[in-house]
Design goal:
The chain is α+β, with helices and mostly antiparallel strands. Among the domains are: 61-213, TFIID subunit TAF5, NTD2 domain (Serine Threonine Protein Phosphatase 5, Tetratricopeptide repeat); 376-421 and 475-685, Methylamine Dehydrogenase, Chain H, CATH 2.130.10. Helix content is 38%, strand content 21%. Strand 24 (635-639) and strand 25 (644-649) form a beta hairpin. The longest helix has 33 residues, at 252-284. The protein starts with a helix and ends in a 16-residue tail after the last strand.
Length: 818
């Protein structure tokens, strides 16, 4: 009923009863002047005069029933019975209306203090509401569990699910005729309470034609939850926004691949010239001076068999080399043409960083599942069971940063830590040899004890010197940074590893210098706790997400945020940068993942098929896919071009706290979580320029075994490297040796060959055969829930967490407080 109609009915009632004073007060308080009042009671009175009493009766009934809990229960019971008795063609669509109506009926009952009535109603309908299209919906089951936790009126403004549900409108897709049937029932039965709920909290999208059934009508988990549809009719428009997901031009990896391809071309030219010279020498022994001419001698004689074989091999080798180089150059051109220019200003990388990146590319191990898996370095932080809340490792693997609930940060220098352990081992060996006193033994002060080795050194002096050195190493290898006044929820290193960013529950993001080991700046803008922070892979930007439902873009050169990304209906729990730095992804407790344009601040993708709240995000190296870990242990993989979920990875039995793609081709996805397991999943290989060139050269070489053997003989020395002095050398060798594997292939993952594997039966032309989205390996820690997973630039798998003898918690973050 419109507000104008309500005003009319009230005025009519006051006039009918003769309450002139009340009528005058109502006009003043309702801001109705005399003309408007006369229009309502005069002109409109003619059209409403016949049903004034009936309309007034309906209005009074609605107002009186709003405070009557049993009226809500009866209304919902009647709606459910009517939907169940509808025609088969429309029943499934009409039953979809029940779930959002039920949630808001439950919240209304709690608001009026009828928690016991709400609990009975939930118990009565839980089983049928969880079932969607004949299947159990995990999304609805979790939402109903959260709804059950809303027991008193105070929870309506404190519980995240209740807040999001009351402040948003979910979207229902119905056929035009189903909607007409629904409205006819509600208005005919005078179900004003349910009409009020639908008007306030549900947006209907109508379509012509027959009702949608099964998956098309939301019969699967996608769209089954209440909060998943709250973006409304804008979802379709958002997800059709054009995207440019290409990587940036003039990247270090592209320049490196171009340089190596040129070197390979020169090397192959020399090999071809050498083969031609050998053929010419063999022909010269038969008196023939032109190796590539006619095989007949001047006197009519024939070339020897050796000369003919050498000539044919030289021709075949040259043809294969030319074909391989042409294919590699064509693939390189295709990939480079897909690169894009940045739309936001980015600082150029300094020469030291470029050199470091080239060194990493030179030593990078290309991972090819299922055989060639990475080596891993795992870090357990002791005595931090209830205090460690965040952790990250620097790209060069020299530093480990950890955040704690006491508001402190700690930096661990891994090189010094190793040196300290070496000194401790040296001390233990000397004690065992009697060169140092045993621990706890009494030593007479002032008396010199000579070692049996005859070095003339005082044992006490040597012990004291060693202890001082150990103390110095201990002071240097761990540094405590203090500045926050709340729990440190997230950490992120800058691309050059000189800066460290931290997000805290004190509503700030802080900037620290890893060299000076001091705080440099504090960024204030969030109103509530900041849950996550991520440094830009290009330049001086960072993005943060917090409990105020926003993500914010910062620059190290400005104290205020450059952009505010608003649109989520609940906390922004996790953030991530796209590899081209032109987009950022955010995951929220409203069970949606959004992709934002950094420059314009617009939301360009919205993925809502989350089975639970997202807890971590990871982009594939080519930026085409996005993996989102969730609280229920699943990982959703999305194609960003279509905004559709490509795969649902399952296996974890607790929240997934971290995820990362391998470098290069991105053929592995590593995930870690509260269940103390690290899992490796196979993923579709990305268009990586180094891998693409390798594969083209290997495929061409595999087409001619003789040429491949010649290539292997000349270049097998580079096969044991990720990308050595000759790209084709390792690739051609891998194709040639078949089941033998490339020379130097893999003793421990880090030294594994690019293209050579332990079992050649899985490979054709150096390219492995495997199914994507499959669980490859599961590694279980003894007592460490995993809160950080990452790959170094050289594809060393890095992971870590707190040593904990207690069963892992199912909370979103250890100590995060959400």
């Amino acid at each position: 009923m419109k507000e104008k109609d309500i005003d009319f009915l009230i005025l009519q009632y006051l006039k009918k009863k003769g309450y002139s004073h009340a009528e005058q007060v109502f006009r003043v308080q309702s801001n109705l002047d005399q003309a408007v009042a006369e229009e309502l009671t005069g002109k409109q009175g003619q059209s409403h005069s016949l049903d004034t009493d009936a309309g007034l009766q309906d209005l009074l009934f609605c107002v009186a029933a709003e405070a009557n809990p049993q009226a809500y229960v009866d209304s919902f019971d009647q709606l459910a019975a009517w939907a169940d008795s509808s025609l088969d063609l429309y029943r499934m669509e009409l039953q979809r209306v029940l779930y959002p109506v039920f949630v808001h009926v439950y919240l209304q009952l709690v608001q009026y203090g009828a928690s016991h009535v709400a609990a009975d109603l939930l118990k009565q309908y839980r089983r049928r509401l969880v079932e969607v299209g004949g299947r159990q919906s995990s999304i609805r089951a979790q939402e109903l569990n959260e709804l059950q936790a809303v027991a008193v009126a105070q929870h309506l403004d404190a519980h995240p699910f209740a807040k999001a549900a009351r402040s948003s409108r979910s979207t229902l897709l119905l056929s035009a005729y189903s909607f007409e049937l629904l409205m006819h029932y509600l208005q005919g039965r005078k179900q004003w309470l349910l009409l009020s709920i639908l008007n306030s909290h549900v947006r209907f999208e109508l379509h012509e034609g027959l009702p949608l059934l099964d998956a098309a009508a939301g019969g699967d988990d996608e769209g089954a939850g209440l909060l998943q549809g709250q973006a409304g009719h804008d979802v379709g428009a958002i997800n059709t926004t054009p995207l440019d997901l290409g990587l940036l031009r003039d990247g270090t990896e592209d320049a490196y691949a171009t340089q190596k391809l040129q070197e390979e071309e020169e090397r192959l030219a020399k090999q071809t010239a050498g083969a031609s010279a050998a053929a010419a020498a063999a022909a010269a022994e038969d008196g023939f001076t032109e190796a590539f001419g006619n095989d007949m001698l001047e006197d009519g004689g024939q070339l020897s068999a050796a000369a003919q074989q050498a000539s044919a091999a030289a021709k075949r080798l040259k043809a294969v080399r030319d074909k391989a180089l042409a294919a590699a150059k064509a693939k390189q051109k295709e990939i480079l043409e897909s690169r894009r220019m940045p739309m936001i200003p980015l600082l150029p990388a300094h020469e030291k960083l470029k050199k470091s990146q080239r060194d990493d590319l030179e030593a990078r191990v290309q991972l090819h599942p299922p055989d060639n898996l990475p080596s891993a370095a795992f870090f357990s932080i002791l005595n931090s069971q209830q205090t460690l809340t965040s952790m990250t490792v620097s790209p060069d693997t020299k530093l480990v940063a950890a955040g704690f609930s006491d508001s402190s940060l700690r930096l661990y220098h891994l090189a010094l830590l190793g040196k300290q352990r070496g000194k401790l081992g040296e001390r233990a060996e000397k004690r065992a040899a009697g060169l140092l006193p045993q621990a706890g033994a009494k030593r007479a002060r002032g008396v010199a004890h000579r070692g049996e080795a005859g070095d003339g050194m005082d044992i006490d002096a040597e012990e004291e010197e060693l202890l001082e050195e150990l103390e110095d190493l201990s002071n240097q290898q761990t540094m405590c940074l203090v500045g926050h006044s709340g729990t440190v929820n997230a950490l992120s290193f800058s691309v050059d590893q000189q800066l460290l960013f931290s997000a805290s529950s004190d509503s700030t993001v802080r900037l620290w210098s890893t060299e000076l080991r001091k705080g440099l700046a504090a960024y204030r803008g969030h109103v509530y706790p900041v849950w996550d922070v991520a440094a830009c892979p290009h330049g001086s930007y960072l993005v943060s997400g917090g409990s105020d439902r926003t993500a914010r873009l910062w620059s190290t050169e400005h104290a205020r945020p450059l952009r505010i990304y608003a649109g989520h209906q609940s906390d922004v729990d996790t953030v991530a940068w796209h590899p081209n730095s032109q987009y950022i992804a955010t995951g929220s407790s409203d069970r949606t993942v959004r992709l934002w344009d950094v420059g314009t601040g617009a939301c360009v993708r919205l993925m809502s098929a989350q089975s639970a709240c997202p807890t971590c995000l990871a982009f594939s190296p080519d930026g085409r896919q996005l993996a989102a870990g969730t609280e229920d242990g699943s990982v959703s993989v999305y194609d960003l071009g279509s905004a559709r979920r490509m795969a649902l990875l399952e296996g974890h039995t607790g929240p997934v706290w971290s995820a990362a793609y391998s470098r290069g081709s991105g053929s592995l996805l590593a995930t870690g979580g509260a269940d103390r397991t690290l899992r490796l999943f196979s993923m579709p290989a990305c268009d990586n320029i180094l891998d693409a060139i390798n594969q083209e050269l290997a495929a061409a070489a595999a087409g001619d075994p003789a040429a491949a053997d010649a290539a292997a003989g000349g270049g097998a020395s580079g096969a044991g490297r990720a990308s050595g002095t000759g790209i084709a050398a390792g690739a051609a060798a891998a194709a040639a040796v078949g089941t033998r594997g490339a020379a130097g292939a893999g003793t421990a993952g880090v030294g594994a060959a690019a293209g050579g594997a332990a079992a050649g039966s899985h490979h054709t032309g150096g390219v492995p055969h495997y199914q994507p989205y499959q669980l490859l390996r599961t590694f279980t820690t003894q007592a460490t829930p995993i809160i950080h997973v990452g790959f170094s630039p050289r594809n060393l798998l890095l992971a870590g967490g707190p040593w904990s003898l207690q069963p892992p918690s199912r909370q979103a973050r250890p100590g995060g407080g959400r």
